[in-house]
Design goal:
This protein is mainly alpha-helical. The chain is built from 20 helices and five strands. The protein binds flavin-adenine dinucleotide. Its cofactor is FAD.
């Protein structure tokens, strides 16, 4: 017997329930990845993620080859391709991971219909992309938690399966044809310091980070210059690492750092269960409707300066320039730049979210859109009117200005006292820095935000 495993946001061999189940059920398995033009049409294959995806696919292919198999890559509408592959090899089952986005729901529906017509069974596995399946825990009277802390309490009480080992051997039927996996070589428009993708690179990064930094994660995760977070988000986005396995590995090490890391992984699950219940929250305000945002035309100049990292607020600019260079940004900086765009510049969160999705290598409809909503005050945040002051945030999380100087070379020679407020320098000094004056006064921005809020 033959089974197909459709890989989606789970590009790994370790702890892979669909692959595990398929190998138990069938003699031969087709590991399949489909490059669906719908992803391109939605503008979701931005260069950084396309390159990281190519790395993941190449790594998956070589891991499968070491086990006697290979990855079959096809291009075309996903249901059509899966159906054709299943027909070519006489598969009776297709296994895949459950997804939460609108796209994932439509994909599952189409597959069910297409495969059902041929009598092929579709088996969708939970808790592959997340540690706990969306909907597995819910408050009384609702299908999802809108507040993190009670969710975290219930989530922590769930028993997780033990991590599944990677298979030793995979036999792929000869008859199935595929194309060469894509390669990042020659791809245009990549951030110059983009991380390397793939399960192998992800596992190595986790091992290194767990040894060196996990124990100090709780204390240092907000230290912008220390850069002590795991940087595993792109591997989690593509499923090159399993959240279930990471939680087990962290628990084995134990301590406050491991607990804090697990809590961040719970944030990821939290947002997944929100979006699973409310797929429209990827584009529409989740809770508080906010109709008065300034849009692309009204705020064109401010938006352009923000995107380029030329707002005149050093921490904001540092974050946005890190994003351009690495395709990644520290969480603390993400909070500050998002608060600045939505609360200080009073620009629609969707405009910022789009820019993030254009560049972030971990750019993810679930985590990106819902974190943006959280900061913008339209989402699940219980303090929707909170505004992060970029000067105070800088003094607190980058006290000597190392992070700012790393990303804003104009300020390289400015000392810690003024690096977050270069407008306090004498005019003649400012004139030679070549660093922009603040786009807007913080107090003016705040006043506009408050007025708009009062108007509803
Ligand atoms: P660590 O601190 O090492 O955390 C470990 C893992 O926990 C992360 O890899 C991530 O998977 C998860 N995690 C941590 N914080 C969050 C969070 N707030 N929400 C959801 N998961 C979290 N994360 C994305 O993966 N993709 C996005 O597109 C994304 N967009 C964001 C946009 C904004 C405006 C904000 C404020 C946050 C966004 N985040 C996003 C969440 C967070 O900033 C990143 O997950 C984190 O910075 C990744 O770095 P790390 O892997 O070193 O995190």
């Amino acid at each position: 017997t033959v089974a197909v495993v459709l890989f989606t946001a789970d590009l790994r061999l370790h702890d892979h329930p669909p692959l595990h189940a398929a190998l138990r059920a069938a003699d031969e398995v087709v590991p399949l990845f489909v490059r669906d033009p719908a992803v391109h049409a939605a503008g979701f294959d931005a260069p950084n993620r396309a390159a990281f995806l190519a790395d993941c696919l190449a790594d998956l292919d070589s891991s499968l080859r070491r086990r006697g198999g290979r990855l079959v890559v096809r291009s075309g509408p996903v249901a059509r391709e899966v159906r054709a592959v299943a027909a070519d090899c006489g598969a009776t089952e297709v296994h895949m991971a459950a997804g939460v986005t609108g796209y994932a729901h439509r994909r599952e529906e189409r597959l069910r219909r297409a495969l059902g017509a041929d009598g092929v069974r579709l088996r969708v596995h939970d808790a592959v992309v997340t540690a706990v399946a969306p909907g597995a825990v819910a408050p009384t009277g609702s299908d999802h938690f809108a507040v993190f802390t009670p969710y975290f309490r219930r989530w922590s009480g769930q028993s997780l399966r033990g991590p599944l080992p990677a298979p030793r051997a995979v036999r792929v039927p000869d008859a199935v044809r595929g194309e060469e996996p894509p390669s990042r070589a020659g791809m245009p428009g990549l951030s110059p310091q983009l991380a390397e993708g793939g399960e192998t690179a992800g596992r190595a990064r986790f091992a290194r980070w767990a040894r060196a930094d996990l124990s100090r994660y709780e204390e240092h995760h907000d230290d912008l210059a220390g850069d002590a977070t795991s940087r595993l988000s792109p591997y989690l986005h593509f499923g090159a690492l399993s959240p279930v396995e990471l939680i087990h590995r962290a628990r084995e090490r134990g301590g406050a750092g491991a607990e804090a890391f697990e809590r961040q992984l719970c944030w990821r699950d939290f947002h997944h269960q929100v979006l699973a219940a409310r797929p429209d929250a990827s584009v529409r305000d989740y809770r508080t409707r906010h109709d008065r945002w300034r849009g692309a035309e009204e705020a064109a100049g401010d938006i352009a300066a923000w995107r380029e990292g030329r707002t005149g607020y050093p921490l904001v600019d540092a974050g946005l320039r890190q994003l351009r260079t690495e395709g990644w940004m520290h969480n603390r900086a993400r909070l500050v730049v998002a608060s600045f765009l939505t609360k200080t510049l009073y620009v629609d969160w969707r405009i910022g979210a789009r820019h993030f999705l254009d560049l972030l290598v971990d750019g993810d409809i679930v985590n990106n859109q819902l974190n943006w909503q959280w900061v913008a005050g339209t989402g699940t945040d219980s303090r929707p009117h909170r505004v992060l002051n970029p000067v105070r945030q800088g003094r607190r999380y980058d006290p000597d200005g190392t992070y700012v100087r790393r990303w804003v070379p104009e300020l390289a020679g400015v000392g810690a006292e003024t690096v977050h407020e270069p407008w306090r320098l004498p005019a003649e000094r400012r004139a030679v820095l070549g660093y922009p004056e603040p786009l807007v006064g913080l107090a003016d921005g705040l006043a506009r935000f408050r007025q708009a809020r009062e108007r509803g």
